[in-house]
Amino acid sequence: MKKKFKCEVDCADCAAKIERAVKKVDGVEDAAVNFMTQSFTLTAPDERFDEVLAAAVKAAKKAEPDAVIFVK
Question: What pTM, to 2 d.p., does this model score?
Fold first, then answer.
């Protein structure tokens, strides 16, 4: 499953740092953070998506504490 979320990232370097951290999370098939559109895209298995999303958000926050990913 692939889903896109709104996010707030301060700079392109921060976006790259978050992307690298999230891609290391178990279950993440792909991740992309776009500074220009302030978006976060996550691809993970359907059956584990919520679990992987929670771990990805935690990893993103650890990599860049000022960043925010808006998860409904």
Answer: 0.93
Q: What is the DSSP letter of 47?
A: G
**7-42 confidence digits (pLDDT tens):** 999 999 999 999 999 999 999 999 999 999 999 999
Cβ neighbours around 72 below 10 Å, total: 5
Buried b (16+ CB within 10 A) or exposed e, 29-44: eebbbebeeebbbbeb
Query: Given 3.30.950.10, 3.40.50.150, 3.40.190.10, 3.30.70.100, which CATH number is that of 2-70?
Result: 3.30.70.100
